[in-house]
Amino acid sequence: MADINESQLVDSGAIPPTDFHQAIERIREVAQYDLELPADFDARLKHVTSQLVVSEDVLRAVSAAIRVGHVVLQGPPGTGKSSLVRALAKAFNVSTFAVTAHEDWTIYDVIGRLELRLTEDRKEEITPVNGALTEAVIRCGNNVVQHFDDPSHPQAEWLLIDELNRAHLDKAFGELFSVLGTDELVPINLPHQKDGNRELVIPKRFRIIATLNSYDKQFVQSLSQAIRRRFTFISLDVPPKKSPTDPWMFDISNSSPAIREFSYVIQRAAQRIASRECSMTPGTTSGVLDEIVEDITSRHLGRLSALFDIVESIRYAQEGNGVPHLPIGTAQLIDTVEIFVTRNRQDGNSADTADRNIDWAASVKLAPLFESDVLEPDQLENFAKNLPSPFSNQFARQLLIIAASGMHFVPEK
Question: Which parts of the sequence belong to the AAA+ ATPase domain (predicted)?
Fold first, then answer.
């Protein structure tokens, strides 16, 4: 009997192809397989989230929600929403296809379209271009098949949508409403594809994981009830406030989420600096990282403590206490510490230089966050005038400039 090669088995329908781009309708052959929970999931989850400032309860909640279906992570900017999605994907042994939503999105961006393109010999031809969801689903099907052959290969691919509510989702998602709202393998029609390659079935392992900025809602589109019903919404917030009796310290494993964030900010900023300084000599990165962390914790802990005290007062400001409320995220704090330490290593490490540089870092990284139409100028001005040293110079002046601009607060009529 003549040997039958793999391509013949694929063509005969005996086994699915490893690439469904030209055989989209055959995704149905692998669509019924549900998402697997890796046997070592807890260990994987702990490992991939070890450097995220996210509570255990939120991690377990998001993990359970993903096993059930599509998820939206909502919260202020910089709270680690996208980082958490990517970490969870690694824990589930899944790859991600990332896109950022925008207000011009239509069904053509999500499902697909025809485009006029030039061939290699400079001739024009009409070419089908898959939208974000179609491409992610096809890649998901490819991963399902390849995972069968190699369990270390990602078991699926998920669509990661950043800034979900910047798009008009009812317009962009169209007929996907019916598909996302059922467990049945309902096909989506792909009018941009050729005959015989137009029916797309979404595998049960596929997920849409989206992030939503809950602070800038006034600048984005509202989500309809139809969209909301098809996602589980989970909130990520800034860490809870530190106990006033606990000092700021560098202790990654501390029981206080606030102190863990403080420690993580130092660690992550130092990692970025060490990686940049040692890009030509990566073998020295670890030593430089230790040196930077030691320098920060021995010489600048007081300055960073003062910075975090200010940030805490802003994060948890109560109405009537004269402090503007702003949910400053961890990412913005990492950026601030990184640029402070970078400039300090450049300019010299004297106490006067360090005071000037941390004040400058706050003025260029934190002050712009106050350009928001939900903050009152009088309150911001009062706050700026009462900032402690060393933040009473450049940081305070930048806040006063913002308060004086009169562009960030529009009172309700």
Answer: 67-241
